[in-house]
Amino acid sequence: MGTPYPNPISPAKTRIGWIGIGVMGAAMASRLISAGYSLTVYARTPSKAAPLQSQGARLADCPFQLAQLSDVVFTMVGHPSDVRSNYLSPNALLSGLNPDSVTVDIGIGIGHRTSASIPTPLRCPFLKFLILTNYKKLKIIEW
Question: What is the pLDDT of residues 31-67, one digit of tens each?
Fold first, then answer.
């Protein structure tokens, strides 16, 4: 396997952003904090981020700010309109991404039509995953 894109991830260097802190998303985000990653979260209802903030997560005011503070951004939301809103609306992710950022959607709210409607800038790969495992057994995979 070649050199990881764009750089190897590590808790000391990689800033993670997370949108979608429901039951599964919050558990996965918590695991990243426990592994030593710097985590920024965005929540439409900021009070829902309190448990993650108590573990050290930073709360972003909007997806744009979260993107600016992150090298890798995960989204895990349940409805296509939420996906589009997080990526495309004013103050959204795509307008705030840094060069060489990576976005990863692991929610169930994005299908082929929704992903096709999100223009992928050349500077940022857009990866789509569907989680088919017990979130308590997830491991951080370095790519």
Answer: 999 999 999 999 989 999 999 999 999 999 999 999 9
CA dihedral (4, 25, 49, 94) in degrees, to 10, reads 50
- Written as six digits, the tokens of 52 are 């993650």
Q: What is the pTM of this model?
A: 0.76
**Residue 131 CB neighbour total at 10 angstroms:** 14
Interatomic CA distance for residues 127 and 22, integer angstroms: 20
DSSP state of 64: H
Gyration radius from the chain CA atoms: 14
Q: Tokens at residue 73, please?
A: 């951004």
CB of 39 within 8 A of CB of 57?
Answer: yes
E-assigned strand segments in the chain: 15-19, 38-42, 58-59, 72-75, 102-105, 126-128
pLDDT in tens, 75-127: 888 777 777 788 778 888 888 888 778 888 776 655 545 555 555 543 444 44
CA distance 109 to 47: 23
Q: Is 72 helix (H, G, I), strand (E, B) or coil?
A: strand
* C-alpha span between 24 and 114 (Å, rounded): 21
